[in-house]
């Protein structure tokens, strides 16, 4: 029997919003290799990835066809082990310490017109502000 005549059940496949539509969300296996992930039910997906995870219904062959051009051949159905969501901090972060010269270590990384918050973004902005004020005072003196 050809594969065209085989009925494949729909799987719940995690996706992310890519601005232009939905993009397949890829994961990593324990050895670090990339894999596609699917779930046999929406409840199972929500249990593992959380209530806010977007998903689309796809049959296994369609999912494999989407993942293959990305260099991903592995498919994991109903994974159990997923890192827990990161809890927000309970205490407010300490106030940044301003330096006299800009420090590039905390600089945001630019990707597609957006800045990525490296966790030191506030420190970087404060440092740049102090450095710019210092430079302005030197030019006016």
What order do the SSEs take from the amino end to the carboxyl end, as H and E? EEEEHEHEEEH
Q: Alpha-carbon distance between the termini?
A: 86 Å
User: How many domains make up the coordinates?
Assistant: 2
Q: What assembly state would you assign to the polypeptide chains in this entry?
A: single chain
The count of helical stretches stands at 3
Residue stretches low in confidence (pLDDT < 50, at least 5 long) are 100-131
What global shape is seen?
elongated
Number of β-strand runs: 8
β-strand percent reads: 15-25%
How confident is the prediction overall: mean pLDDT? 73
- Sheet of most strands: 3 strands, antiparallel
How do the strands of the widest beta sheet line up side by side? 2-1-5
Give a description of the structure.
By secondary structure, this protein is α+β, with helices and mostly antiparallel strands. It has two domains: 3-77; 104-140. The chain has three helices and eight strands; from the N terminus they run E-E-E-E-H-E-H-E-E-E-H. The protein has helices spanning 42-49, 60-67, 121-140; strands at residues 10-17, 22-24, 26-28, 34-38, 55-59, 75-77, 109-111, 114-116. The strands form three sheets. It has a three-stranded antiparallel beta sheet. The radius of gyration is 23 Å and the shape is elongated. It starts with 9 loop residues before the first strand and ends with a helix. Mean pLDDT is 73; it is low at 100-131.
